[in-house]
Amino acid sequence: MAELEEKMEKTVNSLKDQFNGIRTGRASASIFDKVRVDYYGTKSPLNQVATIAIPEARSVIITPFDKSLITEIEKAIQVADLGLNPSNDGKVIRISIPALTAERRKDLVKQAKTVAENSRTSIRNIRRDGNDDLKKQQKAGEITEDELKTETDKLQKLTDKYIDEINKLYDAKEKDILQN
User: Are 11 and 122 in contact (CB under 8 A)?
Assistant: First the structure.
């Protein structure tokens, strides 16, 4: 049961990471989590080669630790396909976060909904595997029918808890995307 709960927890954490990658109309350092910069032949996360500052709701300033990386960082942001246009002044990279159009917001909500549904499906698959395992144990005589029923009910409660958590995360993300 603990192993199944751990898998469900990992699924929810993965969902949180994916939601962080879906940008809203406001600036956030988490938008750049997936950006990888070529740092002397190694792909390094942006936050390990530069500081990311959010001075205003719609702007980002990226200051590289090594000034020679400024063009590499700029390229990496463009390649990451975030819909952002970085500009550099030789010392820092400034990015203005454009306001989202109503159509783009709908697309982002759809994307978030798909990610949430995939996570719900993963949770249900974990439950199914757990139930199959319990049935095998019961057939092998390792647990009684009453224990099977008890464990199945526990697994269902666990599943409901994590599905509910996914729903809350999705609702919060949807609200975040639709806000101005």
Answer: yes
Dist CA 8 CA 47 (whole Å)? 28
Q: Tokens representing 95?
A: 């990015």
Q: What is the pLDDT of residue 25?
A: 67
pLDDT band of residue 149 (cuts 50, 70, 90) is: very high
Supply the pTM of this predicted model: 0.69
Residue type at 27?
A
DSSP element (H, E) containing 179 = none
Three-state SS at 75: helix
Q: Is 132 exposed, middle or buried (0-12, 13-18, 19+ CB in 10 A)?
A: exposed
Residue type at position 65: F
Tell me how crowded residue 123 is: count the other CB atoms within 10 A of its CB.
24
3-class DSSP state for residue 97? coil
Residue type, position 142, single letter? E
> What does the alpha-carbon distance between residue 52 and residue 17 come to, in Å, rounded to a whole number?
18
What whole-number distance in Å separates Cα of residue 49 and Cα of residue 107? 31
